[in-house]
Amino acid sequence: MEKVPMTSAGYNMLQVELKERTTVERPRIVDAISEARAHGDLSENAEYHAAKEAQSLNEGRIAELEDKLSRAEVIDVTKLSGEIIKFGATVSLIDEDTEEEKRYMIVGDVESDVKQNKVSISSPIARALIGKSVGDSVEVAAPGGARSYEIVQVKFT
What we know:
Blueprint: E1 4-7, H1 8-37, H2 46-70, E2 72-75, E3 90-95, E4 101-107, E5 118-120, H3 124-129, E6 137-142, E7 145-155
Parallel strand pairs: 1-2, 4-5
Antiparallel strand pairs: 3-4, 3-7, 6-7
């Protein structure tokens, strides 16, 4: 079984979602199924079929969350340090073409969120950054073409 790296914040986020799905969503869906059953003929009951589909999706997500949590390798980012970029690093970059500054935190696949500047360790930008340090230039193959960045800061928080 392959371990799933994640920060403690990512682990907690998955635990919260699992608890929500098992203690709130699951009972709500069971009630919806019971109510739909009371309406009679199940073969033509759209409410019943919708509730059963919702149940299937919810149970699938619960199984997925339990699997990821059981295989989680929680890495405490606050205990990391150094100059070399690795999992958990927050990296400040300067786009060498536009001079625009960007900041990314390298996190596990399950907690990546570009809107929060959290990139997956398996993303092209993270793969290009791993092992580099301040002052290095990296080239990232992006969908819009290759981009060059200079690393200006590495920190672990």
